[in-house]
Amino acid sequence: MNPQALSKTYQNELLNNVIPFWLKHSADNTYGGYFTCLDRTGKVFDTDKFVWLQCRQVWTFSMLYNEVEKKQEWLDFALSGARFLIKHGRDKEGNWYFSLTREGQPLIQPYNIFSDCFAAMAFGQLAKATGDESYAAIAHETFSNILKRQDAPKGKYSKAYPGTRYLQSFALPMILSNLVLEIEHILEPKLVNEVIDQGIDTVMNKFYRPDLRVILEHINADGTTSDSFEGRLVNPGHGLEAMWFIMDLAKKTKDEGLMNKAVEVALNLMGYGWDTQYGGIFYFMDVKNCPPLQLEWDQKLWWVHIEAMIAMLKGYQHTGNENCLQWFEKLHDYTWNHFTDSEYGEWFGYLNRRGEVLISLKGGKWKGCFHVPRGLYQIGKILEQLS
């Protein structure tokens, strides 16, 4: 591997292929905000606006402005999304809706706390870019609301019958492990340390099961395993993404033991989730090898693979573990051969098990301007440091 040359490959893909795609096709110049439902060529096929994807795009362009280059075009693009979100994104209690019409009318109630998580990320990054305290205040208020809701994230919108089977979900403690570092500059140091300690404990001591060598997506309220569809569910990509979050926390806290543990868990998940027949990482798996509930279980998704690449490269960077480097090179080859689109820009999101493009969209309800640019930036930066 030539880190210097490879770094330029990732940076070129970010700046000359992926970012121009979103700048050209996703702006709503009439009502503000962004179109995210884009076909392979960038044509808009639906105008609904999903708040978490709007927030992710504000974050992406604010981050690029802060970390790559002070391009006014990027900052203006972020601000156009932020203005739309401020005007339309929240209910009276400050909770962020899940989706809106093109004009900004609420479509789906704020049942999904991840809209709030990415809003906090977006406005925290935008505050850093602009120095505007009003954006920092939105991020701080939103984060405080997340902490209040974390024990019952869906609140009154939960479909679960009370008192029968309460399951804790891995997704929120996982994302908090990253979010706290994203907005550390607007939080009190004591709160930052508390959230970090809680996040590490929850991820590494509760959801990670050393006997199974995997991270479970759901556990019982008392921390035990639930022998149910949800309780047996493993999402290797989620675990791998979480491990590079934990590596960042280990670096911040100078905890070598935690760093080594995160690398060990990440390597376990890579071996567990890799499809030895066709290559790529399975989307969902059942820890007892029972039939998965999710019919899309064997699909290969863009975000899973780019997050896995980040985890493996960070593992190699911080520990020198050669197994991480070998996995990164294997992931690099698979990802660049299957997900990239040199003809129209951006990346495909959904492949079938054999690695063939299943849906040719570039953005939709779940895929937006986030994982690909964040991953390309992170990997390019790490390779640059390694060189």
List keywords for this structure.
mainly alpha, Glycosyltransferase, 2 domains, 3-stranded antiparallel beta sheet, 9% strand
Structure, explained:
- The protein has 387 residues and is mainly alpha-helical.
- The protein has 2 domains: 27-159, Glycosyltransferase, CATH 1.50.10; 167-387, Glycosyltransferase (Alpha/alpha barrel), CATH 1.50.10.10.
- The chain contains 12 helices and 14 strands.
- The protein has helices spanning 3-25, 51-67, 72-88, 113-130, 133-149, 171-182, 189-207, 236-253, 256-273, 302-319, 322-338, 371-386, and strands spanning 37-38, 44-46, 49-50, 99-100, 106-108, 167-169, 208-209, 214-215, 218-220, 233-234, 285-286, 300-301, 350-351, 357-359.
- The strands form 6 sheets. The protein has a 3-stranded antiparallel β-sheet with strand order 3-4-5. The chain has a 3-stranded antiparallel β-sheet with strand order 12-13-14.
- Helix 10 runs antiparallel to helix 11 (322-338).
- The radius of gyration is 20 Å and the shape is globular.
- The model has no long low-confidence stretch (mean pLDDT 97).
Break the fold down into its secondary structure elements and pairings.
Elements: H1 3-25, E1 37-38, E2 44-46, E3 49-50, H2 51-67, H3 72-88, E4 99-100, E5 106-108, H4 113-130, H5 133-149, E6 167-169, H6 171-182, H7 189-207, E7 208-209, E8 214-215, E9 218-220, E10 233-234, H8 236-253, H9 256-273, E11 285-286, E12 300-301, H10 302-319, H11 322-338, E13 350-351, E14 357-359, H12 371-386
Antiparallel strand pairs: 1-2, 3-4, 4-5, 6-9, 7-8, 10-11, 12-13, 13-14
Helix pairs in contact: 1-12, 2-3, 2-4, 3-4, 4-5, 4-6, 6-7, 6-8, 8-9, 8-10, 9-10, 10-11, 10-12
